[in-house]
Each structure stands twice: as C-alpha cells, then as structure tokens.
Amino acid sequence: AMRLQAPHFHALFTPGLRSVAELFEKKKYELRIAGGAVRDLLSGMTPQDVDFATTATPEEMKEMFTSAGVRLINNKGEKHGTITARLHEQNFEITTLRIDIVTDGRHAEVEFTTDWEKDAERRDLTVNSMFLGLDGTLYDFFNGYEDLKNKKIRFVGKPSARIQEDYLRILRYFRFYGRIAEKPGDHESSTLQAIKDNAKGLAGISGERIWVELKKILLGNHVSHLVQLLYELDVAQYIGLPVNGSLEELDRVSKNIEDLCPKPMTVLTSLFKVKDDVTNLDLRLKISKEEKNLGFFLLKHRDELTKATGPEPLKPYQDFIMDSREANTISKVLELLKYQGEEQLLKEMQQWTLPTFPVSGHDLRKMGITCGKEIGSALQQLREEWKKSGYHMDKEELLSCLKKA
C-alpha cells in the first residue's frame, strides 16, 4: 500500500484536525480524507477544501461531539450523513459512508454503511473515489491513482450507470478532463457513447447547477475541443447553448485568451451570433445580470470597437469609456480586450486611471458665462478638445481655448 508523506499533507494537521482525529480514535471510528482533497494531495497540491468520511453514523458523531463539548453547525447535510463540527476556529465536514438505494438522475436516497469500497463505488470518477488515512495510507479501489498519474478521466465502473445516478456527471466528466487530461481527444469511446445516450437527462437538471459546471469547463484547458464535443454528443441543446454555435469563433477566441484570465461569459460569447443566444442561455441557466450584460456588450462591440492604427492604439477604448454613461464599462472593455487577444493593450488599460475632466460650470461662471444653455454647450465643446488631446489638457489650457473663441 502506498503512503503519502509530503509536507503539504502534514500541513493539514492543524490543532483542529488533531483534536478531531483524537476523538474518532478514542471511539474506534475510522476517519479518512475523501474525494477531491485526496486527488489534489496526490497531485502535489494543497486542497482548498478537505472533506472527511467515516464509519460512524451521524447519530454517533453527534453524541461524540456533544459530549466532548464540540460545537456543531449547519445541520442541513445531516439527512445525507454529513455533520459539520467546529474546533479551533475551523470547520470539519465529516460524512458517514453510504450507498445509494434509489436515484432519479438528480437526487439519491442513501443508506449508511461501514464498507469503504461500497462508498467509493457510488462516486463519479476514479480520480475522485480514493480515500487517504490520516497516517498517509492510500485506499484506492478503482485505480484512481493510476489514472491520475496517466492523466486519464474515467467513470467508476460502467459510465452509463454512473451518469444515470446524476446526469450532471456528464458535465463533471468534461470539467475534470479540462483540469487533468494532458491533451484533447484522449477519451474512451465507450464513455463518449454513454454520454451521448444519456445527454437528454440533462434537461431535468436545474440551470444553476449546470452553470456552475459549465463555468469551470470554460476556464479549464482544451475548451474548444470540449465544447465541440458538447455539440457532437448532443449535450449542447439541453444546457442552453445555441443550436448552431459558432465553433470556429470559439476556437479562435480560446487561443486569444489562453493566459489572460477571462470571465466564463467572455469565452462563451464567442459561440453566440445574435442577442437571442444570450437571452436563451439566461432562460435556461439563470445567469446573473452582470453576466448577461457582458454577453450583450461583447456581442455588440467585438467587431467595431478595435484598436487604432498609429501611435495611440488604446485611444478608441479610452474614448468609449469616457463617453459611456454605464457602470462597469472599464471591466467590460477589459474583457473585450481579452476576447480580442490584445495582451499588450490589456496591460496598458489595467494601468490606466480614469482621468477627471478638469473644468466645471463654476469655472465658466467665473469667466462671466451665466446662461445654463451656454454653459452646457461650452462644457461639451471643451470636453471634445480635451478628448482630442488624449485627456492631457489641464484647466488653464482648456479655458484659454474659450478665451480665444
């Protein structure tokens, strides 16, 4: 059996975890790290969240923690077997081993077990089905470690059976492929066939759950390849993507934005051809207002708002921002520059500070202009001069323009 003895593993042993481990040991309940945290630890990463699995039932855990004076929080997960304990300012989420009795493709009715292999069997992918003892011993029933080393993404057992337990697993397959697989196209044909056969099941999954997974796919590797597969395997139509999405544009844009940390919507907009594509996506996935507005913005400006030839390539974008009356224009323009692959201009725009127009109506009144209408048109005229100067003219220079006039 393999034992992990790495610094990032030992770093998990905070005073809180040591106290939890002691309680379980005293009661002779087994406690292991489960799921994604094991995958991350074996990949040499420190996991952001650590979930634990145990042979103790929720009732046994509650009794143990309560008698030790440990605070329990958030009892929402209890019917699924999860207890959350708080020790030393840290939360520990611990779930009883379980078997799925009845599944409907969205939810499962579970029964508790003390069989680690049975619990591993109900997990989605081999790389997520491993356990790690607190002594570093790896418990791996489905060759997850082998798959992780070979950067292979496979379902535990039969792909169709796993997918039918929860159709969202189709998107989780793509998400983890984009995170772990080294190259595009390294799929088992039986897996792709199972996805195609079961794609329709995604129609019954809530838009919010789909959007969480889709966003992660869009920010992972092999985006163009994976989205193309969503179309080839008939998945796209059930998750709100346009029927005839622009895959060539997606391919081009996904190369543009490779290292530019785009928002998921920036990547996704490359598929869209008309405003209705954004509206339909929103109807299916309930995206945020900000995401929807970004989609509309990129769709409208991606072709006509482009850099200038000559010494000031950034000027059209700056002018656009200065003329805009909308909130968040700068952040939308930054996403547009990513979409267009303008890496250098993006850096410059990120360092640019929005200049403040130096002249006010008060300045004009001091010069003797008192009519409101005249003040308005003089300010407009000076704004134009200021714009032409690249926003460099100061108050004195601008006011002297008026004196000359």
From TrEMBL:
Keywords noted in UniProt: Magnesium, Metal-binding, Nucleotide-binding, Nucleotidyltransferase, RNA-binding, Transferase, tRNA processing
Source species: Odontophorus gujanensis (marbled wood quail)
Record-annotated tRNA nucleotidyltransferase/poly(A) polymerase RNA and SrmB- binding domain positions: 188-239
Keyword Oxidoreductase: no
An MF annotation (GO) of this entry: nucleotide binding
The family this protein is said to belong to: Belongs to the tRNA nucleotidyltransferase/poly(A) polymerase family.
Domain Poly A polymerase head as annotated: residue spans: 31-154
UniProt protein name: TRNT1 nucleotidyltransferase
GO cellular component, one term: mitochondrion
One Pfam family, short name: PolyA_pol_RNAbd
GO biological process: mitochondrial tRNA 3'-end processing; tRNA 3'-terminal CCA addition
CDD domains for the chain: NT_ClassII-CCAase (cd05398)
